[in-house]
Amino acid sequence: MTLSRGLFKIGPARLFVHFAVLVIVIIWLIPTLGIFVSALRDKDQLVSSGWWTAFAGSSRTVAARLGQPDQQKQDGAVYVISGNVLEGQQGRSIKAFGTRVQQPAAYKAGETADLGDGLSLTVNDDGSYRYAKPAAFGPDDGGRRVYISVATPAEFTLQNYKNVLTSEGIGQSFINSLTVTIPATIIPILIAAFAAYALSWMEFPGRALLIALVVGLIVVPLQMSLIPLLRLYNQVGMLLDAPSKTYPGIWLAHTAFGMPLAIYLLRSYIAGLPREIIESARVDGASEFEIFTRIVLPLSFPALASFAIFQFLWVWNDLLVAMVFLGTDRDHLVLTGALNALLGSRGGNWEILTASAFVTIIVPLLVFFALQRYLVRGLLSGSVKGG
Fold first, then answer.
1. Is the pLDDT assigned to residue 182 strictly greater than 90?
2. Do the domain assignments include residue 245?
3. What burial class does residue 232 get, using C-beta atoms within 10 Å of its C-beta: 0-12 exposed, 13-18 middle, 19+ buried?
């Protein structure tokens, strides 16, 4: 009774919103669950079946050869070659078999296949077979190819993660990513916080134009500004006779790319702070810097945390800017670049791809869960009223 009253008070509109959010969460969760399960699966099973069959086992078609004529034995009126096509493969069983690649599962396990000219073949589910002929087997009858559909139980392993984490250079690349990401997150926050306060509470000519310019810069694609910024960066490096691939260079690049969004988010929040607090501080003789550091900055922590999440995720997952401004040498290669090189050397190994995906999201997940309580508050505060 209480539950039905609660649902009635919520209303159909809110129920629809809750249902829509639940559907979106499930849609986003299913691929992530698939990657997680795939990263723990055996390589052969991952290639042969989808992740949703992981707990039910899988089946794949492989080719095997029967015994040679020197293994034949006479059994009454027929000659028989026997053996086991699953020798050395524990835990496997055969579901079907065939003698043609076009029909690899033409016969069920245990069924006797008539191959013509008196030849017959029986393959049991445990891999044992009986290949019979009315006359003695000749040299041309040996080593006949047979196709079998092998069922394997579910297998899970941590070997995929071991291959990724123990590959050469991954540890150094992890440190390089932290070296790039932490300053590239802190620097734009510090600069944008000063700019956001000035655009919110300080009167000066051209303030509205600067605000419009910041909003306009948000929609500029990174790829459009990457080449001009790189040329300017190289020209400055030549004038100063400085190395072209340095960490300060990529810090400034990420700061430039993240600054418009940072200023926009922080200004929306800071402009929504109560005017009475700012005016009271000014009446008490506080300077603009004191107001910013002692009042505005502590109150703006939710907005700072919100942008920190966005900026950290963007810089940590970045590959393009890192390769352009840092290069691909081992001393400066970031984690995304190292994993990309590992995938390139391993070909189409899906187990490396899925394990690498989870290795890269460990640190962003820790950052997100540490700051997620401030995310929505920081994004929505200031959306109703602003300066």
1. yes
2. yes
3. exposed
